[in-house]
Amino acid sequence: MEDASFEEAFDEFSQGISLCGPYWDHISGYSKASLERPEIFLFLKYEDMKNDPTGNVKRLAEFIGYPFTTQEEKEGVIEESIIKMCSFEQFRSKQKWSSKRRTTYRA
To answer: Where do transmembrane segments lie in this chain (predicted)?
Structure first.
């Protein structure tokens, strides 16, 4: 699959062919684990993050052991700082800024 065209890769993915096994089996396993052991697994879905970013950022903070204080919530830290800093608009503005730099990053 390494040198496959997009169409071939999509076909294989749709059929459950992948280096790590069927994708949906992984998703299903993590979803089930998060229900059985929520103290160890946090399963966040994009749709949920999009529909309720504040509630899910709070869940994430609690999960990693750093819940927001009542004062932080009242001051709007979640919405005004975290969600705003992590927005696509913010990333786009950083990308424009960083594209003016000559540094190339490679993974």
So the answer is: none
